Amino acid sequence: MLPKATGVEFDATSRQLLDLMQEDFPLVDRPYAALGERLGISEAEALERLREARAAGVVRQICAIYDTKALGYSSALVAMSVAPERLARAAAVINAHPGVSHNYKRNHDFNMWFTVAMPPGEDLDAVIDRLHVLAGAESTRPMPTLNLFKIGVTLDMSGARDMTARGAPEYTEERRNAAAAFGLTDTDVTYIKATQGDLPDVEEPFAPIAESLGWSTAEVFAHARRMQESGHLRRFAGILNHRTAGFRANGMAVWNVPEERIGEFGQFVAGYRNISHCYERPTYPDWPYSVFSMIHHPKVAGVEDTARAIAAETGIEDYRVLYSTTEFKKIRLPYFVPEYDQWEELCSAVASEGATVDADDEVLS
Prior knowledge:
The chain is α+β, with helices and mostly antiparallel strands. The chain contains twelve helices and 13 strands.
């Protein structure tokens, strides 16, 4: 089934271009010439098709995709229960934190789900405790990753792949741990800062990065390959807006798995091509689900069919599929930026006055 993008009709060539950009954005001086050659079109036409996809809201960003934990950051998915009448304000408070990259309302008593990350050496648990208070949450459950089975989103825009077929995950816990042990140099951090932004839609998009670093583009590409080999950098890629691209059904399937079967089950689930993320996370008395998997499909029925197939294959029948009903925030996490310190300084100043902080960084008495 071809996903139907919102507001625009893409032909087969544009869909193939979007697939290629997600999977393997060329690390060459003129990447759109390289992509065009693969598709039998000119560089100018490839760029024009990209700009159309940008204008339609299908392409969100083209950038380097780094692994948060491999860079030394601590992170967690956090589930909060917030009174419905307080939800909008709580979301604004949560969104104001620079380490919050995703925040959704979901169909559960834990109705707010967000991811938060902190730079190396910072106290993530203390930040989550502070967000609990600032948001006025009734209960909060931190759910850090205990084991990574799969991470990596590539949406099949051309319909060329069987998304329910199985395949080996490209990035796993082993690669993440090896990268984290490798460490970062000062040059790596400078490189990350220079490459984490959106590439411009021009013939030579890497030239501004090279200029900012005082490097040649050949050096930019060589350093990217080195960081890919170490596992810090997963890839350069185009990132699509799931819903606008036609994948309107994105369900977070959570599974109550016996402890002795978690590893085997997680590896099995990670093999599904239409599952982009699969993790083991901690359980609580009011949350028995230990394995999380994100299922993508153009229709809700497709998400539910995938979950049922997994249950039938594995015998794990205690599961739920949670859908996001409101997207409060979705960005690429910024690395090694001053906003983290600024947020801490603001909270410290506010605490000394016995007040709270709103989304616009104003003091509320």
